[in-house]
Amino acid sequence: MVLKTGAGALADSRRLPTALRSVLGYYADTGVFDYSSLSLKSEIDDRTERMLDDVYDRVEAALEDEFGRPVSFRYDTKLILPAQLTLGYVYREARRDAGTDPVTDDIATGVPPVETAGLSGDTPDISPREQVVRAEQMTRLSIEALVDGDMRDAINDDEFEDFETDIDADPRRVAETAQAALQSHLDGLLDQMPPVVADAYQWAVDYSEAHQDRDDYFRDLMTAAEDGDEDAKDAIREEYKFADYDEDPAALTEAEKQLPYSKTQYARVGVIYDGMLDLYRLAGLDIDDDFAKAIVLAIIGAQVWLDDVDDYADDRAEGQLTPVTAEYLLAPDDRAAYTRVVDITEQYLDLAKEYATAAESPLTGVAVEYIYRSGDPSVLPGHR
């Protein structure tokens, strides 16, 4: 108990690096101390950075063809974290079962075999090395798909500040050229796989886009609520904060489907990663249900705590309905809204940590702690 209390105190010390504070905070909460998670995180960061370099090399080739000169390209996205955590999860499981380290210096590329029984939990008996190979292949595919999807959203929203190039050109032209190059390559990879893979991928995309198609409607509700329309506020509660699921996600329990903003945020971000994990299962990898829940709940919490909190002022000014702007419309005052935002975030992230612990994935638990300790709610009204 003394050790856990001391760890909690150290975790709250801002003089320590956030990564170390996250390890200590996770231990203080769960009693699980796994300093090796830091070295595993470093290894995963290095390997997925090399995968991203391959993606950007493809984009740079397309930009050179488009502009007639070499172009340096990078795209700032945080959305690959769940793919990184899944790769780390498979590495840990494979190493646990192997006599020698199944992770080699080279990173496997190409298209993994597809095991359709994987979706029903009937995973094949494959060697630790083959698990690593398939996980690396699927992570490479997932990273490209996640970057492509994030680029699509940026183009749709006319947000080009995360596209980094060394060429003075129309940002939209750069973004559309980059995204088209990735989409073409992804389509080719999916064509090499059985239709069930493309179907699983497309289902997640369609589910998410159905939510995006309601954006104008939610903006209209927010505008009306800003003007004091009580009916609009009731609609935000019923259709945005506590909406009923049309299609029940297997990744969440009945209780989790009742969490504030569960349906809208699952459709906004959670479903993409739920679908991503199904792709790993189709590759014959045993992805534990508790691990899947940890990923989905963590990404919803991260969306609220990192993006929506940071963007609150801009979202409020631009009429963008998010869980954070919604609370400031529905709560009786700023302090109550602030308290609700913190409480909602902690509900998602605390559950994610519990599932990470149950799945014996301390790397994921530490990552959830890192998300929480990286947030800055002091930018919100009502903080003091």
State the end-to-end CA separation: 32 Å
- Measured as a percent range, the helix fraction is 55-70%
Mean pLDDT: 89
Strand order of the largest sheet: 1-2
**Main sheet, how many strands, which sense, barrel?**
2 strands, antiparallel
Strand-helix topology:
Blueprint: H1 2-11, H2 18-30, H3 36-67, E1 73-75, H4 81-97, H5 128-156, E2 163-165, H6 171-191, H7 195-212, H8 215-226, H9 230-241, H10 254-257, H11 262-282, H12 289-310, H13 312-318, H14 323-330, H15 334-358, H16 362-374
Antiparallel strand pairs: 1-2
Summarize the structure.
By secondary structure, this protein is an all-alpha fold. The chain has helices at residues 2-11, 18-30, 36-67, 81-97, 128-156, 171-191, 195-212, 215-226, 230-241, 254-257, 262-282, 289-310, 312-318, 323-330, 334-358, 362-374; strands at 73-75, 163-165.
